[in-house]
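hi got a favour to ask and not much time before my train. below you get a single protein, a line of residues and a line of whole numbers that encode the local backbone shape. could you go over both lines and see whether the tokens make sense for that sequence. a few lines back from you is plenty, here it is:
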Amino acid sequence: MTPRWPERLWIVRHGESAGNVARDFAYQQGLPRIDLTGRDVDVPLSPLGEQQARALGHWFSQGKEEGRPNVVLASPYLRAMETARLFREAGGCPEGTRIHLDERLREKEFGILDGLTGLGIRAEHPQQAELRASLGKFYHRPPGGESWCDVIFRLRALMDTVGLHHGGCRVMIVAHQVVVLCLRYVIEGLTEQEILAIDRAGDVANCSITEYRWEAGEEGTDGGMALVRYNVTAPMEAEHTPVTREPDAIVGNRG
């Protein structure tokens, strides 16, 4: 009988992106808008982000994880695809491993708030700033964008696909900060208050590892995926690669 869930599941945020760097600069300078051109989907990794992705691959290639993934899923955003590719090139998974792109892993969409810092949101869209303060980030959906709930809806479907097609496998998912957090909500059955408390405790580091393992239930009961560790930055630290934790840069006041 095919197992219901992966044997191992690693969830990784992409390496530092050019957008993360631009966001940092905008906040340091007190600017209303992040200086980025083109589509968010096309924002590449920074040179440091590339280094982080390779460090992650080296970590797995050296046997630090008791095995390498044999299934890799990635957001179709360039920064996530590049992270997965560099991870593979560095030996993090077998050379011929296909990187499966899945649009359900894309970044949270910010709609009319796209590209604005917190200052810019309050100046250009004060009503949205008030709504977000009232509803909270979990339920606030900016026009043309998504709430955390919307992201969770698509991730529930994604996890059904993972269970259906990759049961018993060693799976890695490469995506974005909000996706990492919302997957914790889905897999662990958390409440709004619990996941927002985790979010407040600190940002998800670039190329950090969140790991789950399958645990069988007692006789007559279902097993499930158990959290082993969260937001681990050991691969970067092992190679003296700087650890970065900037939120994704599409909007300073991230969802």
About this structure: The radius of gyration is 18 Å. The chain has a mean pLDDT of 91. The beta strands are 8-13, 71-74, 99-101, 170-175, 209-215, 224-232.
